[in-house]
Design goal:
Chain lengths: ~110, ~290
């Protein structure tokens, strides 16, 4: 697999107290464990099994991802921003890797 | 030969148009406008001419898709094809081969040097032979970089063609079909109207006579290739033009031609010419 690269998009501006739409996308095969290779052997499962987002240390979303989710999972959700701060995103891979992205956000 | 059945085909085309527009209230929506990121307007309906006498108008496949799929392509963040484009951009700058060269060493910034390339593909090479974009990429790899050629359908190749195609996004399809290209174009046209396989279907059976109708759970498009390489949701990956051709011919229950075969290069030129005036969509999203 090519390098895993998280992608984040936040709105350009928002006021304190607003609910903003957060879009995330990560490239990942999300190998379900249900498939077999050309030799007939099962391909081991390797998915992102958990996704979290925190804003200033407060958990915004903590999601369990399952094998039926397709490749390159896109997760969109709303977050309440009460002031300036930093978003921290974590994707947990079955192989133990954790892909992290941070994004600062300023209210106007 | 197809001129003999003009009247019949025109009537069929008109009937199909009526059905296509009849579905206008739901999906597909022939009045939809493709605007990328609220800024870049793409041409998805182009006037027909002598090249497509049986099409009243040329439609991008984008118009035939559901609203949710159409919307994916209007936002570069949500468009999953951008993963391939980014990977291609990385490869563009990566030196490879015994000559330790990258694409960038010769071609500079792709935004400048590759603009318009996709719009004119496939194109005659210096020797007068019709080449697809994949051929040009591999020629650079083997002749200039002294690196291994990429497989036609390899991930590396699809990433690179995605990245190069993006540099032509918004430019009208404009392929050369006269002069030395004419024999290739005629070969492609003959293939387009040849019935293949146990189902005895030609390209025209579906994409000229029946576009707008359902095939299984999906709408038949005009089979335009202005959106390729395309991210297909069912593959969760990029699909090249020749791979799409192969899939179509396989679905007629025929032995297909190979990706990268001379037959598919010729067909690519002819099908591209049927979409002249439509915008290159760089990397489209289809179901």
């Amino acid at each position: 697999m090519t390098e895993v690269r998280p992608r984040i998009r936040l709105p350009r501006r928002a006021s304190a107290g607003d609910s903003i739409v957060v879009k995330t996308l990560i490239n990942h095969n999300m190998e379900s464990g249900q498939r077999r290779n050309s030799a007939g052997e099962p391909i081991p499962r390797q998915i992102i099994n958990r996704f979290t987002c925190e804003f200033n240390g407060v958990m915004v979303i903590d999601a369990a991802l399952e094998p039926a989710i397709s490749a390159n999972p896109y997760v969109e959700f709303e977050a309440l921003v009460d002031g300036n701060g930093e978003f921290v995103f974590n994707w947990y891979d079955d192989n133990g890797d954790v892909y992290t992205a941070t994004e600062a956000f300023e209210v106007s | 030969m197809q001129h003999l059945k003009t009247a019949k085909s025109m009537a069929l085309a008109a009937a199909c148009m009526a059905m296509f527009t009849g579905a206008a209230l739901a999906d597909p929506d022939p009045t939809a406008e493709l605007v990328i990121e609220g800024e870049l307007h793409l041409v998805t309906r182009a006037p027909s001419d002598d090249l497509t006498p049986y099409l009243p108008e040329r439609y991008s496949g984008w118009l035939f898709r559901t609203e949710t799929t159409r919307n994916l392509q209007m936002d570069d963040f949500e468009n999953p094809a951008m993963i391939a484009v980014e990977a291609g951009a990385d490869a563009w700058e990566t030196a490879e081969g015994t000559n330790n060269q990258s694409c960038m060493d010769c071609h500079g910034d792709a935004e400048d040097s590759m603009a318009g390339v996709r719009a004119g593909m496939p194109h005659l090479n210096d020797a007068g032979v019709l080449w697809s974009m994949e051929d040009y990429v591999n020629n650079c790899r083997t002749e200039r970089m002294d690196a291994e050629a990429w497989g036609w359908n390899s991930g590396d190749m699809r990433n690179m063609t995605s990245y190069i195609s993006m540099q032509s996004r918004g430019m009208p399809v404009d392929v050369e079909i006269t002069g030395d290209a004419a024999p290739y174009w005629e070969q492609g046209r003959d293939m387009y109207y040849t019935r293949y396989g146990q189902l005895e279907l030609s390209c025209a059976s579906c994409h000229e006579e029946s576009y707008g109708l359902m095939i299984r759970a999906d709408h038949l498009s005009q089979g335009q290739i202005n959106g390729f390489p395309t991210y297909r949701l069912k593959n969760a990956g990029m699909v090249s033009i020749h791979n799409r051709f192969r899939g179509c011919i396989r679905d007629t229950r025929a032995e297909t031609f190979a990706m990268g075969s001379d037959e598919f290069r010729a067909l690519e030129l002819y099908v591209a010419s049927r979409g002249m005036g439509l915008s290159v969509e760089g990397v489209a999203v289809r179901p």
